[in-house]
Design goal:
Distance between the termini of chain A: 32 Å
Largest sheet of chain A: none
Order of helices and strands of chain B: EHEEEEEHEEEEEHEEEEEHEEEE
Number of strands of chain B: 20
Helix content of chain A: under 10%
Helix content of chain B: 10-25%
Largest sheet of chain B: 9 strands, antiparallel
Radius of gyration of chain B: 19 Å
Number of helices of chain A: 0
Oligomer: heterodimer
Strand content of chain B: over 45%
Number of helices of chain B: 4
Number of strands of chain A: 2
Structural class of chain A: mainly beta
Structural class of chain B: mainly beta
């Protein structure tokens, strides 16, 4: 199974 | 006070059509640099970044940085009332809870204004770090759209692999599998038909086709699309907007458990 990563695990709040 | 006059009003219409499937409500930020937007989809899997540089407008007045929250569906409803050849002016006043879109026909014989209610939107602005990508693929945007559409009738995810041979798009589903390989063809006469592959390292990443198909709504903005890939980073799917800026879509990969 593939798990969908969140964009928030790559980009931090500015 | 904000007043942005865009002679090629159809660009704004196309931008809205490109992003409104992915994002419902968003803050449009206006500064000396330009008219921009950054927003995530509701599941926080994809992010869209739009920039229309101030130099691309015939007239650009923005006295102070301003953020205007808009429902993209409502904005699209209003912009659909503009003709494709119309000049569009976006007007806003400090502290006002509305924005006005003015449409002028090319011959100036029809002038319309539509006032839209703004909304308060809590949005988190994300810092997008500069990244060195392992591979950059440039290809005709219509070809990319065709591939995403075709593969989504077979499977739900696409594996994008870049090797020295070219770029491969693969999927599998209940009925079978599909592989589409696009090779470099930079020798074609027309630059808009070229496919080029820059590869520093081989890359293979899995993405949800549903989002890729949504990004391809931006196809009318540009003949070419640029796909930047690095292992275990979000892919960047970029549509340049001639002489004005870009729409960039970031999509988080699916990771094998």
């Amino acid at each position: 199974m593939n798990r969908q990563k969140s964009i928030l695990s790559f980009f931090q709040k500015a | 006070m904000l007043e942005l006059r865009l002679v090629q009003g159809s660009l704004l219409k196309k931008v809205l059509e490109a992003i409104r499937e992915l994002v419902n409500d968003a803050n449009f930020d206006c500064s000396a640099t330009g008219f921009s937007l950054q927003a995530m989809d509701s599941s926080h899997v994809a992010l869209v970044a739009l920039l229309l540089r101030s130099e691309g407008f015939e007239h650009y007045r923005c006295d102070r940085n301003i953020s205007m929250g808009m429902s993209l569906n409502n904005m699209a409803k209003m912009l659909r009332c503009a003709g494709n050849d119309d000049i569009i002016t976006v007007k806003g006043d400090d502290g006002s809870d509305t924005v006005t879109f003015m449409f002028e026909s090319p011959t100036q014989d029809k002038i319309s204004d539509f006032e839209m209610k703004l909304m308060d939107i809590d949005s988190e602005h994300l810092g997008i770090p500069e990244a060195e990508y392992h591979a950059i693929v440039r290809m005709p945007s219509a070809e990319f759209a065709r591939i995403c559409k075709d593969l989504s009738s077979i499977g739900d995810t696409v594996v994008i692999s870049v090797t020295k041979e070219g770029v491969k798009f693969s999927t599998k589903g209940d009925i079978g599998t599909a592989n589409i390989v696009c090779r470099q063809n930079s020798s074609v006469d027309k630059p808009e038909e070229a496919t080029t592959v820059e590869m520093n390292e081989p890359v293979s990443l899995t993405f949800a086709l549903r989002y890729m198909n949504s990004f391809t709504k931006a196809t009318p903005l540009s003949n070419q699309v640029t796909i930047s890939l690095s292992n275990e980073l979000p892919v960047v799917v970029e549509y340049k907007i001639a002489e004005m800026g870009y729409v960039r879509f970031y999509l988080a990969p699916k990771i094998e458990e």
